[in-house]
Amino acid sequence: MKRKDVELLAPAGDMEKLKTAIEYGADAVYFAGKRFGLRALSANFDKNELKEAIEFAHSKGVKCYITVNIIAHNSDFIGLADYIKELEELKADAVIIADLGIASLVKEVAPNLELHVSTQASITNIHTALAWVKLGAKRLVLARELSLQEIRQIKQALPEDVTLETFVHGSMCISYSGRCLLSNYFTGRDSNRGLCTQPCRWGYQITPVNNENKESYPIEEDERGTYILNSKDMCLVEHLEELYEAGITSFKIEGRMKTPYYLATVVNAYNRRLIEIENGQEPKFDWKEELAKTSNREFTTGFYFGEDNKQNYKQSGGLQTHTFVALVLQDAENGYCLVEQRNRFKLGDELEVLSPDENFNQIIKVEQILKEDQTEIDDAKGVQEKLYLKTNLNLKQNSILRKRAEK
Q1: Spatial distance between the Cα atoms of 215 and 239, rounded to a whole number of angstroms
Q2: Buried (b) or exposed (e) across 18-38, using 16+ Cβ within 10 A?
């Protein structure tokens, strides 16, 4: 497998995240405008920001796919045709859609805009895949519920110019490829129109219907209830060659609402593993351990290999072994680098470098911290304070410093 033969596709909830994904090795990014995408609670991009984002990405040789993947109601079509025309004018590389009506509208008003079919469309078989191809789809983002064998069969049935994309890392939905009604039922916020409140991450208890005292009973011996609908996170970093051999050429990372630190960690790990595979190298690092340094709910390979251990019954929030403590603002010079503090660190701490360059995984022992006025301090605990950190490493701008999280 050649690195150029596959695509590492990363989420971008805002401009900072888009630039982080590109900096750390993404070949393509997917993001949304202010409407019509499934992450309405993310910052997203207005028209001017869309233009800036697409131009910036293209200047770096990175493709831009715009999500228009809501399950649309009648009212959602107001202004949609004009928006799609704008995306074509802005030279977006493709739109990701899930709705048949939206797909038809795209082909009508922007025939040169490439059509990618979202995982929300729940493509689980050859016949559905071929039906979308007849409607003009050039890429299919397959449902997460498929095995590798089923993916292989779909690929063999498709024309050569139609590519397959699947998720390789991130949160998994309890319902078929995101088609969930829980959020709408409990809170009135429609997950299929971008407003999911993630009830699948909540703890639950049993309340008998005919219980006059309205007592609730825990499902397990746990005062918080049990997260019976809460999935572990997908992680396929150890199986990229197998996915490629099955016909998948776009490896997609979930997480438009995740942090820049999350994006940097995940994109960096997958990009480096893909480069190792191209060079015929065994892993230089334990990549699952590296990925555990940012937020996760434990890992699973999902449905690809028939694994029957997908649920996380312990907690809804993410765990991580390391904390993002500082962002490098300028290239190091004369033994010091200017950083912006994000979390507390102090003299004597060992900070690990997260970067797309040769400094990755190097350790800095904190020996001296200077404020901008050159005053020495021994404990960096301000809020986004700019500080000079002594180091013998040639750190580059936008590198991240992290330290092991305190238990």
Answers
A1: 47
A2: bbbbbbbbbbbbbbbbebbbb
> Quick one: what percent of the chain has pLDDT higher than 70?
86
Per-chain mean pLDDT for the chain? 90
Which is nearest to 349 in space by CA: 290, 279, 404? 404
DSSP state letters, 87-156: HHHTT-SEEEE--HHHHHHHHHH-TTS-EEE-GGG---SHHHHHHHHHTTEEEEE--TT--HHHHHHHHH
**Cβ atoms 325, 403 nearer than 8 A:** yes
How would you classify the pairing of strands 63-68 and 322-328? unpaired
Sequence-distant (≥ 6) Cβ neighbours of residue 284 within 8 angstroms: 272, 276
Q: Is 46's pLDDT higher than 70?
A: yes
Instruction: Give φ, ψ of 234 to 5 degrees.
Output: -75, 140
The residue behind tokens 């202004």 is 79
Q: Which residue has the tokens 């590296």?
A: 290
Please tell me what DSSP assigns to residue 396.
-
CB atoms within 10 A of CB 202: 16
- Residue 36: its pLDDT value, please? 77
> What pLDDT, on a 0 to 100 scale, did the predictor assign at position 221?
46
What is the C-alpha separation between 118 and 387, in angstroms, rounded? 44
- In the structure encoding, which two tokens stand for residue 108, read together? 């009508």
Q: Write the DSSP symbol of residue 235.
A: E
pLDDT in tens, 92-110: 999 999 999 999 999 999 9
As a whole number of angstroms, the distance between CA 391 and CA 370 comes to: 12
Joined tokens for residue 271: 């990009």
Return d(Cα 119, Cα 114) in angstroms, integer.
Answer: 16
Sign of CA dihedral 252, 257, 262, 264: positive
Distance between CA atoms of 181 and 284, rounded to whole angstroms? 43
Backbone angles phi, psi at 295, to 5 degrees: -55, 130
- How far is residue 382's CA from residue 344's CA, in Å, rounded to a whole number? 8
Which two structure tokens, joined as six digits, stand for 98? 């899930």
Q: Which tokens hold the place of 184? A: 């709408």
Question: What letter represents residue 308's amino acid?
Answer: D
Question: Is residue 241 within 8 Å of 277, Cβ to Cβ?
Answer: yes
